[in-house]
Amino acid sequence: MDQVKWNVGVIGAGVMGERMMNAIRTHEKFRVAAVSDVSAERAQEAAQKSGDVPWYTNYKELLKKVELDVIYLAVPPKFHHAIALDVLAHKKHLLCEKPLANSLTEAQEMLEAANDAGVVHAMNFPLYYQGVFPELSRRLEEIGDVRRIDILTHFHQWPRPWQQTPWLAGREQGGFIREVLPHFTHLTYELFGDLHVVRSEVDYPADHDLCETGVSAFLRLTDGTPVTINGLAGIAHEEHLDYRVYGSKGTLSVVNWSNLFVGGHGEALVPAEVPQQDRLSLLLDELSIAMNGGDARLVTFETGVKVQQVLEALLGHEKVHYIK
């Protein structure tokens, strides 16, 4: 028999944590049972919104003092590894934000620990649960042989106005390569399989503490299909994201996360209708299925490691340009 509600411990009550907690608070299978954040103000506010549940500024206290079924981890990437290993040592199911870790070694160790713990492990990749994903998948059959995939990520400001957090601007764990490109790397993996980086050139400002301002990369799918990445920040242009698949009979383009455009042979791209889905609710549905022992549609740490491999290769600095 299914449990009435799973108890969720939330570690990290920032922007992403709050979004997930809003979804958990209205979900029939989960409840926020405890919150931890290094900011006492944020932790207390989130706990009050969740029904005056216990709150902590040290996640280890949360793990020790509250009966929990699953942890949602929404802290900056460089803290994922240490916290995740503690969570997994407590044999708790784990839902983690992307990227999985701050290095490939850390990501692999997290996967190994999750497998050893025998728990459900998953990641939050919103595109996978949006209506655009099944519609894009369905329409791939209509465009013939895939000739190339182009990924464009342009930002007039980084971090974006709603993301004014110092770590996102830093080279150690921030930048749009780590923050945005995982979404499109994962999308490519789910649609087409493994991909590897052939070459990558990353532009950095002269200040060695600041993250990248540009990336130009060439990748290939296992079958040899080329994939390009064109990323820029700090340009006189509104934010624009475009994931474009060119085929021999048609083209598909996902613009700014949720807008799908389609075009046939010799045709201009036109908007396509995409069904609306509550992506976080769907993710939680699948997580509950997995926690009940069922087959679920989750992005596991195995896939997280594959995404991490691509990120590390993109950041491999084969050619690094410092802009004065």
From TrEMBL:
Protein's recorded name: Gfo/Idh/MocA family oxidoreductase
InterPro entries given in the database record: Gfo/Idh/MocA-like_OxRdtase_N, Gfo/Idh/MocA_oxidrdct_glycsds, GFO_IDH_MocA-like_dom, NAD(P)-bd_dom_sf
Residues annotated as domain GFO/IDH/MocA-like oxidoreductase: 142-252
Gene3D superfamilies named among the record's database cross-references: Dihydrodipicolinate Reductase, domain 2, NAD(P)-binding Rossmann-like Domain
Molecular function via GO: nucleotide binding; oxidoreductase activity
Source species, domain of life: Bacteria
Naturally occurring in which organism (per UniProt): Brevibacillus brevis (Bacillus brevis)
UniProt keyword terms in alphabetical order: Oxidoreductase
Membrane-crossing segments per the record: none
Domain Gfo/Idh/MocA-like oxidoreductase N-terminal positions: 7-124
